[in-house]
């Protein structure tokens, strides 16, 4: 199963069809010329040059057990369809049989203590994972195809938003599977359904405490030249994506904001003095992340 992780990422409301949202985004983007670099899978932390294991890991990590699968309410807002570089993904809104084989990577200290897509705090020393379509939260068994090692993880984040990746594992989960040295490896991911009862989809929104500032998401878009990283139909999802991008692209952090118009919330960087300057920034994004950002002149 091939999963592409990119930075043109738009979440659709349950009432809107994929086509309707695509049209809306196309209209709003008319007139335009989308959690550091991941240069090689063999580097520590999967990809990031400044990611990796913590300098002072807790003692007795071997005593941390795999999570016990249980039925939990599924977050409604993380179950909405979204599009990455023109490819639409439809997350499962309930526990569903799922089995796929693909490449796993892991993320470490850079994201430790940061909010996940589900609103929970990422703990690199817990047995967790990020997946593009499995329900949040849910449980899955991950098996390293090369050595047969297997673990159970709690899926509580979205991703990986990079090419050819199926799942992102926490530091501890990757350690248990023997993936720390290589940074990645082929795994088999199988959803775990703990019983016959299917949890209801919760209507609770993501926690708003410590979220990125909302005012920018409710103000009109200013004129100027911008580099767009993503577009969303839910303000909270745009805020979560903004927080992740400020970590991934820290050199753009100060110029990033969320701008809202006609129910669409865009994560953009700028303004720039010229299209050439914005183009250079977009090229750097593409060089570091492998995906093309959009240059908008409005």
Name its key features:
Alpha-Beta Plaits, 16% helix, alpha+beta, 298 residues, 4 helices, 15 strands, Barwin-like endoglucanases, four-stranded antiparallel sheet, globular
Provide structural commentary:
The protein folds into two domains: 9-34 and 217-297, Sporulation related repeat (Alpha-Beta Plaits, 2-Layer Sandwich), CATH 3.30.70; 61-202, Beta Barrel (Barwin-like endoglucanases). The protein contains four helices and 15 strands. It is globular, with a radius of gyration of 19 Å. It has 298 residues and is an alpha+beta fold. The N and C termini lie far apart (38 Å).
Task: Draw up the topology in text.
Layout: E1 9-11, H1 18-28, E2 74-75, E3 82-84, E4 87-89, E5 99-107, E6 128-131, E7 138-144, E8 150-157, E9 167-170, H2 171-177, E10 184-192, E11 201-202, E12 225-232, H3 235-248, E13 256-261, E14 264-272, H4 275-289, E15 294-297
